[in-house]
Amino acid sequence: MKLIYSPESDRLCSASLIGGKGAALFKLYDAGIAIPSPLCVSTEVYRLFVKQNGLGEKVAMALGRKDLQEIRWEEIWDISLTIRNLFLRAEIPAEIEQHLHHQVFSRFGDVPLVVRSSASTEDGGHHSYAGMHSSLVNIRYDNLVLALKKVWASLWSDRAILYRQELGLDAMESTMAVVIQPLVIGDVSGILFSKDPTDSSRMVIEAVYGLNQGLIDGAVAPDRWLIDHSDKTICSHFAPEKRMTVTPVEGSSRLQLRECNDWQQQNPPLQQDTLHELVAMSSQVEHHLGAAIDIEWTFAEGKLFLLQARPITTRSGDGETDKRSWYLSLTRSYENLKALRETIENELLPSMQADSERLEKVRLDELSPHELANEISERSALNTQYTSAYWQDCIPFAHGVRLFGEIYNDLLSPDDPFAFVRLLSGQHMLGIERNELLWLCARKIHDNPSWMSLVRDGRIDLIEDNEIQTIVAKLKKGFAIGFVEAGDPGVFPEILSAILLQFSMLHVHPRHCQHDDDATLVADFLVAARDAIPMDPAELLDLARASYRIRDDDNIYLGRIGQEVERALAEARKRVSAAGVTDANTLSAEELSAALLGTPKKTAHGPFLRKPAENRSKRSVFFRQLQGQAASQGIATGQARVIDRTADLKDFRKGEVLVIDAIDPTMTFFAPLASAIIERRGGMLIHGAIIAREYGIPCITGVKDATLRITTGDHLTVDGYLGICTIQSSRNRQ
Amino acid sequence: MDENVLQDILRNLMSKQKLAVLSTQRGGQPYSNLMAFAYTEDLRHLIVATGSATRKYQNMMGDSRVSIMVDNRSNDEQDFHQATATTILGVAQPVDPQIKQHYQALYLKRHPYLDHFIASPTTQLFVITVHNYLIVSRFQDVVEYRINDEADLLS
């Protein structure tokens, strides 16, 4: 059976055998265009590898837990990481290794190689897969097998799964060929669109010094030219603020990112003659492929090479949009993550802290109705502004954890694809600090019967003890407690008392889950990563830890702003009620402001954390076993407490299983009290999973319709190893 | 999940399967057999037949509680994510001679090649009144459909 193809002997190979990219390169190579000599490892090799290792059903089971449309992106990332680990740990059949040695090594020897994805559905002219799968640069023959596994696994990258789903392609039919070429170490590299996807009268050329890897993954900002498509004249040129370059590290498989030298800073990477040479090549390629194209190219020692070419998709050519660019934006480069961290730690979080402290000092009861209405408006706007910044900066920064996880697994191929999380957990986080204060306060109260009595009455504020009131003040100001209502100073003591009452029943400190061998894991990572990754390993670990920590802490900062909005609303409700409005509690911020100023209102409804439960009284269908993602190990049984609205949190009792749509770090004070957590929202790195691991309690995430399928009072067994929740008996069945 | 959707899943599953595994017990010893079966359109009853000299006949006469499993596995690794199975819990009773014709017709419509077997004077038709269906899909998802409003057999 033929497994590896070359353009000399297999001129007209089909895309089903060597993938779309491979087929295009063979065609252009045959037409005499300067292309680094390509070989193609066929889709049959992928099939053999998958079959021999039994990966087909493992992939299907990983993807088949729920309908793909119901799986969140974070869950898809988790699935993708699991599949990638399966591929990396799988053995390549000896027959394939012999073929590789016989054909690849014989042809190229030990020169640095480029290993490119070439999926069977890729780059066929209808859908562009640019950036969806992996291409690896500067690979030595010794590492070729590992590189092949990585490229094959990229067929199941989160973005590729999402994109195929959007296009309605059957995931299980997907297959991958791989193009192998000698690496041309270019002096200047880049991309070219023969038609600008946003304006077909122009061409676009982007160029960088060195390899184009930095341009492709977004780490290097390119020089950009717009060329008139009809007369090929330059319309405009945009230079980046600072020119950077990616080059191979001599004698290793690494690439390095550095600033360009002074001469390069002063001179753009392309001049008039090289631009014209590029434009001429693009016309040739367009002619042979019969469509507008997007190409990658490089100039090495003055000679222009085509690295790859694909037709521009009909979608983008027609001005239609798909979500590919959004999928690509879900991952961030290391440099981008470092910049985000800088912004979040040095600007966003201090600014949120300063604003919440400023707002806390405002004596709302002294404001006139007009001033209070303005205050509500200003606070709501601030909340919106910070929420927007949270989405813009904090959510993408969470990719730091994912980047670390991918690199960790690539280096160490652990049994558990999520073993890397142990290197990130156990840090100081605001949610843990808050829970420690709650534990401390509860211990003090527990030993004093009269204080316990006050707490039972919801009047922690009446306890005359400086130490306790200091803790209460810290809890009130330093942390958001997971109820919107907690911002109301009149309600806060009642809520805090309810929480402390439950904490007072904890007789043993809810210890963090620490593993004895965590230090060894860190050391193993640092050793494995030394000289193997293009960044400082300790710096990467530090960034990942910050990403993990901030993922939780940022919500608490944001919650404090939210609580200050609520404090103003509570003051407004008090005044409006006193003025005779009977339904003040149902009014929105705008309606309360209007009522303060004496203008009409309309009725609003309180927020639900989930859809109101269907009428269960006549049910004949009962969910007996639900599956989700095993997000924190352990097994526990307990009665379910389903949280429909934030107000339900007050009813939570120690030992119950928390069943919730989506837990927020402002709510994670339940973790030390809960026997287990079940969450509808899926992911290994969501807040419920993070806090469950910190306290060593089982957690299952991604349980479809968890809050609808489980009823408060159901007796649950939660298996955090397998991700299964068994409903052993159900109150509504009696 | 909507009751009608679940009923459609069950009808679709059972219509494509000729055989089911019937489990009975005697003296605490479970006993399983592969059986031809039929069912009523409302899913409330299943029909099986057995010779009166068989162990399963004796078991059902001694303890009417039975469990039946119907599944669409293809004995392929894809079953782990594709197969659906239902465990049906109910009570088996010999069919009353007065209504035998109705159930026999249903049975023979699905299994016309068993006409000689059914016609034997030693063959007994049993009707199983279903209490509940437990449907397993996607390897680990389990949903119970209680078709009769009776005590929970699994509690």
TrEMBL record, chain A:
Span of domain PEP-utilising enzyme mobile: 653-723
Gene3D superfamilies for this protein: ATP-grasp fold, A domain (3.30.1490.20), ATP-grasp fold, B domain (3.30.470.20), Phosphohistidine domain (3.50.30.10)
Keywords: ATP-binding, Kinase, Magnesium, Metal-binding, Nucleotide-binding, Pyruvate, Transferase
Pathway noted in the entry: Carbohydrate biosynthesis; gluconeogenesis
Cofactor: Mg(2+)
One GO MF term: ATP binding
Family matches, as Pfam families: PEP-utilizers, PPDK_N
Catalytic activity: pyruvate + ATP + H2O = phosphoenolpyruvate + AMP + phosphate + 2 H(+)
Sequence ranges assigned to domain Pyruvate phosphate dikinase AMP/ATP-binding in this UniProt record: 16-320
UniProt keyword annotation of Kinase present: yes
Keyword set includes Acetylation: no
Enzyme class: transferase
EC number(s) reported in the record: 2.7.9.2
Family that this chain belongs to: Belongs to the PEP-utilizing enzyme family.
Protein function: Catalyzes the phosphorylation of pyruvate to phosphoenolpyruvate.
Protein name in UniProt: Phosphoenolpyruvate synthase
UniProtKB/TrEMBL annotation, chain B:
Entries under InterPro entries matching the protein: Pyridox_Oxase_N, Split_barrel_FMN-bd
Domain Pyridoxamine 5'-phosphate oxidase N-terminal: 10-132
Source superkingdom: Bacteria
Protein name: Pyridoxamine 5'-phosphate oxidase
Organism per entry: Desulfopila aestuarii DSM 18488
